[in-house]
Write the C-alpha cells for this entry.
Amino acid sequence: MTEDTKASLNARRAFLGKLGLAATCTGVAAGAGALGVLQSASAKTEPAPAAAKKTAAAGAAGSGPAADGKSFPTADYDWTKHQWAFGVDAAKCIGCLRCVEACKHENDVPRNAHQFRTWVERYVYLEGETTARIDSQQDPVNIEASGSEKEDRFANRYKDQKVEKAFFVPKLCNHCTHPACVQVCPVGATYRTPDGVVLIDHEYCIGCRYCVQACPYGARYFDEEKGVSDKCTWCYHRITKGLQPACVEVCPVGARVFGDTSDRQSPVSLFIRNNRVSVLRPESGNAPNVFYVGIDKEVN
Amino acid sequence: METVIHSVPYTGWVYPNETIFEWSVLIAVYPYLTGLVAGAFTVSSLYQVFGFKRLQPVAHLALLTSLCFMVFVPTPLLLHLGHPERAFNATLTPHWTSAMAAFGYFASFYVVLLILETWFAYRPFIVEQAQKRTGLLGTFYRMLTLGSNDVSAKAIAYDQKWILWLAITGIPAAHGLHGYVGFMYGSLKSREWWSSDLMPVIFLFSAIISGVSLLVVLYVASCKLRRIPVDVPCVKGLAYTIWGFIMVALVLEGLEFANIVYKGREGVEMIMEYVTGPLLVPYFILQFAVGAITPFLWLSYMIWRGTAGRALVAGVTACACLVLFSVFMMRWNVVIGGQEISKTGKGLLYYQLFIGGKEGALVAIVLCIAPIIALLGLSRLFPPWVHGTVSSRVAAVGEH
C-alpha cells in the first residue's frame, strides 16, 4: 500500500468518524425532542392554553369567583357544568340565509362575500348528472341576484333545468374535541373551553393565520381590520347568559339545534339520540361537535 | 376607512372563507431564506467538520452568508403578522403543541451559534484589526475582541476546538431548523398537497442544494469583482455537492408526488387537474425540467467529460442559478400551490401577486436581496477571503 493510499484511507476514516459523530448528535437531538414534545403536542391532547391559563390563574389567585367556591368564569355561569353541541337538520333547511345575516349582525362580521362565521351551501343534482353542483351565498351569480355583497340570497339559477335532488347545508365552526386550529396556534390564543367551545382571544392572537390553514372545514377567516383570526363562537356571549346562538334563534324551520349534552332532555341531546347523525370529515380525527342529519356523500 | 379585501378568482366549489388568500408570497420567501441558511451552513460544515479541504476558499463566506440570511429570516413573517408587536408572545408564552411555537427558540439558538462561530473564526482578524486601526473602526474591533487578545498558537488551537464543536452542533441546528419548516406544512392535515411525511426531508434537501448554489454564485461573483482567479477545485467541490444532493432531492420530490397520485385519496382528481393545468408550467416545466433536471444533466455531463477551467466555472455557475430558481419555485409551488387547491377538493383558486403592498412582489424581492447587501457590508468588516481559515492559521502559527 502506497503512502498516498494510506493517507487517503486515513482521511476517509476520519471523515466517516466525523460523519458518525454528526449523525449521533442529530439523532440524540431529534430523539430527545421527539420523546419530550410529541406526547404533549399530539392533536389528541388538550393542553391548557395561555388564555385559559390566564383566566384560571385569576380564579386560583383568589380574585375570581372560583376561589370562593362560586361558579366560574362568571358568577352566573359555570363552564364546568355544561357541554355544548350543535345539530343541523339539512332536510329542514330552506336556504333563506337568515342565519347568515343574523350572525353577521350579531357578531360584527365584515359585510362582504368572503368572510363568514356561518354560511349555507346549496347542493343540486340535475337530471343525468352524478355529481352535485355546489354553491353558496358568496357565489358571484348569487351576489348578482342579491344586488350587493351585503345582502345574502340564493339566485334561482336552475329554474330552467330539471333538478333531481337539491338540498341546503348550513355550515359553521365544528368546535372539535381535538381541534387542529388549537393545536397549531403558536401562542395559545385559540383554545377550547371546558364547556366545549373553541374560542379566540383577540387580545392575544398574533395574526399568523396558521389556524386558518389548519381548519379542514374553512370555518376561519382573517379579519384584516382587527389583524386577528375570527370564527363562530356559538355566540358564546349569548349562550353563557342562557340564550340561543343568533343563527339558531332566527332559523324559521328549526334546522339548527343547539343545547347542552349534559342535559339528556336538551334539544341537541334529543336530536343526537333520535337521529342517525354524522359529522363532517370524521377521518381528520378532529371529532367535530356539529352533528348533521340529511346530508349526502358530496358534503364535506 | 373600510378595509380593502383582496379576494381571488376561483373555479368549482370552494369554501367562502377560502376566497381570500391567507399566506402570500412572503410565506414562500420565508422557507426560501431559511433553506439558503441551512445550505450555506452545510458548506461551512463540510469544511470545518468533515475536512473537505477544497472548500477552504468559501468556508468563511459560507458562515457569513448563513449569518446574513438568518438575520433576515424572521422579516417576512413579521411583515405578514396581523399583530407583529405581539410576535414575542410565541416565545414568551409558547403554545407547545404548535409546530410554529418553537421557531423563536430554534432561530435564536441558531443565530447565537452562528455569531459565536463567526466570532471564533474571525478572532485573530479582529485582534489584528483592533491593534492596527484607530478611530471609530478601531474602537469597533476593540469592542469585538471582548478583551481576548491572545492569538498564540495555543489560543488559536483552543478557538479551533470551539469552532469544530459549534459546527458539529450547527449541523442538527441548521438542518433541524429547516426540516422543521417543512414539518410546519407537512403536519397540516387540512390540505392534501401539504400533508406529507416526506415534506420535512424534501425541504431539507432542496435547502442544501439552494444554499450550496448560492455560495457558488456569490463566490464566483466575488472573484470577478475582486478580479482574482476562481479556485476551480473549490467550484468543482461545490458542483459535486450540488450534483449529489440534487439527485436525492429529485427522487424525494418524485416519490412524494407518486405517493399522492398512487394513494388517490379524496380530492386527488382536483390535484391532477391542477398539476396538469395551472401548475403544469410552474411545477413540471420551471421547477423540475428547467430548474432541477437541466442542471443535473449538465453537471453530470461536465463530470463525465471532465470539464475544467473556465468552462467548468461558467457551467457550474449557470447550473447554480437554475437550482436557485428551481428551489424558489418549489417554495412557491408548495406555499401558493397548496392554497390554490381548495380544501373542498372540488375547486381551484388563483393567487394574484401584487407588485406593491406590504406582501407584494417588490417586498419579496427586497427581502431576497437585502441579505446579499448585508453580506456585502459585513464582508468589508470581516473579509472572508483575506485571512483564510482558522485551520490554515493554526498551521501557519505552528510553522512559525
Summary: Residues 23-187+353-399 of chain B form one domain. The CA atoms of residues 283 and 289 of chain B lie 9 Å apart.
